[in-house]
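Is this the right way to post structure tokens for a design question? Let me know if I should format differently. Anyway, here goes:
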């Protein structure tokens, strides 16, 4: 079982970049520990800004630094970054076209027992609604590295959601098929297509295997690039399928499922089943416990697919 969290990989990539490029700067809102960025602050104190618990200031300061030529990475809990500083994300970053990478840490239900106040089940919808804002949810540590390496090479605003805890590997080290803004095909199938993002990619990968083992031909697609959505790749993978199933650690409105359903309905109508967190405060528990309760696991998703095909 992997013991390295995606946020720790982000820190390593940013440290490597900061050693080569003094324009790389990292900002936190009293969250360097939560973001696994303590070692960055220690090694590169002149390239680190601590603003305290002030998420609006965090984003505006990052935008100001970016307007002066810096490559700013602003990290804060996703639940606060996507709500408290929403206007700054919209105006100072996206509308102004500044090179700020907004990193929502401990996304989804990562904070577990802290409950709805600390959960970010609305951030995909909120951030995707901002013109000019890209939205990414990497699925494992290997893809996280590739994504941040790519983000360091461009000057466009983006929001990246990372979970708090280590997740199982989806890819093998050194064998990560990655193309910016292109979904990754995990496996091919003829009857069902499973589409996931972030921490739901491993469960759809597991579900696809269970379904294939049971004689149901299922493909799986890692849609780490929620915006821009890889519509071309989605439609190619969805062609001829009886059922499209999406899975996301998000509210049922405005997220991956809504985007996939919209794209499929507009271009190649077929049945789309969207699996997500409920439209209510979720139960208290660890991420694994929450996912199991709502059927967002490999076995749970596979059973839902079987039920849908039989119904």
């Amino acid at each position: 079982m992997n013991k390295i969290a995606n946020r720790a990989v982000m820190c390593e990539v940013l440290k490597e970049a900061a050693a080569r490029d003094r324009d790389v700067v990292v900002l936190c809102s009293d969250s360097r520990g939560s973001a696994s960025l303590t070692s960055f602050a220690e090694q590169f104190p002149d390239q680190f800004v601590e603003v305290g618990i002030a998420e609006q200031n965090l984003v505006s300061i990052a935008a100001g630094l970016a307007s002066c030529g810096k490559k700013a990475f602003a990290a804060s809990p996703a639940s606060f970054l996507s709500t408290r500083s929403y206007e700054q994300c919209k105006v100072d970053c996206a509308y102004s076209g500044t090179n700020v990478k907004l990193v929502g840490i401990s996304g989804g239900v990562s904070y577990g027992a802290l409950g709805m106040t600390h959960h970010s089940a609305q951030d995909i919808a909120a951030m995707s609604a901002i013109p000019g804002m890209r939205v990414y949810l990497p699925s494992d540590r290997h893809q996280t590295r590739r994504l941040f390496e790519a983000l360091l090479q461009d000057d466009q605003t983006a929001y990246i959601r990372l979970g708090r805890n280590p997740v199982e590997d989806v890819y093998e080290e050194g064998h990560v098929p990655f193309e910016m803004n292109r979904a990754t095909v995990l496996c091919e199938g003829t009857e069902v297509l499973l589409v996931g993002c972030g921490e739901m990619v491993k469960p759809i990968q597991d579900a696809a295997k269970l379904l294939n083992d049971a004689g149901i031909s299922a493909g799986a697609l890692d849609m780490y690039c929620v915006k821009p959505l890889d519509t071309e790749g989605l439609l190619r993978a969805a062609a001829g399928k009886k059922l499209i199933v999406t899975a996301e650690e998000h509210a049922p409105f405005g997220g991956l499922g809504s985007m996939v359903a919209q794209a499929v309905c507009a271009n190649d109508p077929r049945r789309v089943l969207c699996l997500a967190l409920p439209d209510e405060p979720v139960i208290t528990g660890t991420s694994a416990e929450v996912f199991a309760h709502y059927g967002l696991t490999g076995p749970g998703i596979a059973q839902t697919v079987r039920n849908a095909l039989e119904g």
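Format looks fine. Someone answered above. Worth noting: Residues 184-310 form a domain with the Rossmann fold fold (CATH 3.40.50.920). The longest strand covers residues 71-77.
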